[in-house]
Amino acid sequence: MDLIVIGAGPAGVMAAIQAAENGARVTVLEKNKVLCRKLRITGKGRCNITNACEKRELFDNIPRNSKFLMSCINNFSNHDIISFFEKNKLPTVVERGGRVFPASQNATDVANCLINVARKLGVRFICESNVTAIIRNNDGVCAVEATCRGETKRYEAPNVLIATGGLSYPLTGSTGDGYTFARDLGHSIIDTKPSLCPLVSDDFYISELEGCSLRNVNINLFIGSKSVYSDFGEMVFTHNGVSGPVILSASCHYDESVPAKIEIDFKPALDEETLDKRILRDFSQVKNKIFANSLDGLLPKKIIPVFVMKTGINPSKQVNAITSQERSRILYLLKHFDINIVSKGDISEAIITSGGINVKEINPKTMESKLCRGLFFAGEVIDVDGYTGGFNLTIAFSTGYAAGTSIRF
Question: Can you give the pTM of this predicted structure?
Answer without folding.
Answer: 0.85
